[in-house]
Amino acid sequence: MMPYPDLAQVSKADKLQLARWMRFLPSPETPETGEILSEIMKRFEAYGGWNPVISKAVGWDAP
């Protein structure tokens, strides 16, 4: 299972990394992980969200 990044990592992540977290992170179990996932989602949407190219680049097999 992929571990949650911290907010500093999220603020530096590119679109591909944000997409990987969006697809493979487990559901948040604490308020802290919920906040992190919300920030990931906000930044990912600011980059334009999902499209066929980014979806194919991320794939469906967990890293």
Can you lay out the helices and strands and say which pair or pack?
Elements (H helix, E strand, L loop, with lengths): L6 H6 L2 H10 L6 H16 L5 H7 L5
What does this entry look like structurally?
The chain is an all-alpha fold and 63 residues long. It is built from 4 helices and no strands. The protein has helices spanning 7-12, 15-24, 31-46, 52-58. α2 (15-24) packs across α3 and α2 (15-24) packs across α4 (52-58). 11% of the residues are buried.
SS summary, helix count: 4
Taken in chain order, the helices and strands follow as HHHH
Please give the alpha-carbon distance between the first and last residues: 9 Å
Question: Unreliable runs, pLDDT <50, ≥5 residues?
Answer: none
Average pLDDT score: 95
The major sheet is characterized as: none
- Gyration radius (Cα, Å) is 11 Å
- Shape descriptor reads globular
How much of the sequence lies in strands comes to under 5%
Structural class, from secondary structure content?
mainly alpha
Number of strands: 0
What portion of residues is helical? 55-70%
